[in-house]
Amino acid sequence: MYAVIEQGGKQYRVAEGDKFRVEKIHAEEGANIEFDKVILLGKDDGAVIGTPYVEGAKVTAKILESGKEDKIIVFKYRRKKNYRKFRGHRQQYTLVQIKAINA
Question: How does DSSP classify residue 37?
Fold first, then answer.
């Protein structure tokens, strides 16, 4: 069984036991959270597609860690104009592990 969930403006295909990174979630490490925006449920006998979400479906996950990604450098430059802009960005993330898919 698998599910497609929506979190932080992105969609993720998950199954039980999967570990993946999502946008920063403000909760303690080791806490259990629920994703209730389930777009699709894939079962052995077919898929259930929500309009827009599947009613009564939830995905339970455990927060493993929070942190920052590697730095991404943004450098803007125009030749002969003495125009240079140098920026860096580190996106915050939360690593979660799927415990159960409840349909």
Answer: -
pTM beyond cutoff 0.85: no
Residues 34-71 have pLDDT tens digits of: 999 999 999 888 899 988 999 999 999 999 999 999 99
> Phi and psi at residue 71, in whole multiples of 5°?
-70, 135
Q: Do residues 50 and 39 lie in contact, with contact meaning Cβ atoms separated by under 8 Å?
A: yes
In angstroms, the Cα distances linking 50 to 3, 4, 5, 44, 101 are: 11, 10, 11, 17, 15
Kindly give the pairing relationship between strand 58-68 and strand 32-35: antiparallel
- What are the two backbone dihedrals, phi and then psi, of residue 87, each rounded to the nearest 5 degrees? -130, 155
